[in-house]
Amino acid sequence: MEKIQQLAHGAVALEQSGDLQGALNAYMDTAQAMFSHLKEVSDSKRSAFKATLESYLGRAEELKSRIKDEAASVRPVARIIQKTIEIEEGATGFDYETIFRGPMQTARRCRVFDPYIQSHHQLLNLTAFIELCLSKSNIRSLQLTTKHAQPNYERDQASGLQELVSECSKSGFSLAIHYDDALHDRKVELDNGHVIVLGRGLDYFHSPKGRRYFPGARNFALRSCKKTSIDIYFDEHVKSTWS
Question: pTM of the entire structure?
């Protein structure tokens, strides 16, 4: 419960500071943590707990609408929304190729912003994304910006990313790692100007949770997803930031 309280307080602080995207992500993180904790809540407190959970989800939806409205008013010409993908809880058929292959056409470099690339399954998600770049596109350079891992994942993150950088170089793929512990954005930027905003980052699949052999273990199109939304748009400003 202490972690949930910290996440909730952080979400409120971010919203009050004007960081709407950061607050949106923090509210979603809080709701996810509460959902994972739901089974441990006693029957007498469950109704109130669920009401609080729903209030955070509602606030996240309000912020999402506000962010879209503000983005449209700031750069109505440079940014062109192309598609919004709504993924329902438990849905399948939304592997990385389905989401990214279209925007990746003509791209050669990309930036991935995801604060949570630290646990084993999250590192596997990043590996699967890089495999898509190598097999289905001309992208051969990726800059990852993420947070330093929580203490219980520090070793996994450090050794996993180091190994991935080394193995990518053997395939002619450049992987650079940058750390930003204030990061909240979850998105992929391509050098052709396409931006894919990921509500849950690359980790929108349900984790294996100890399972090793199951449909979806290797073919992500068969893996069930968490409820989320993905926005794909073209941004002339983003395209201009690539030298």
Answer: 0.69
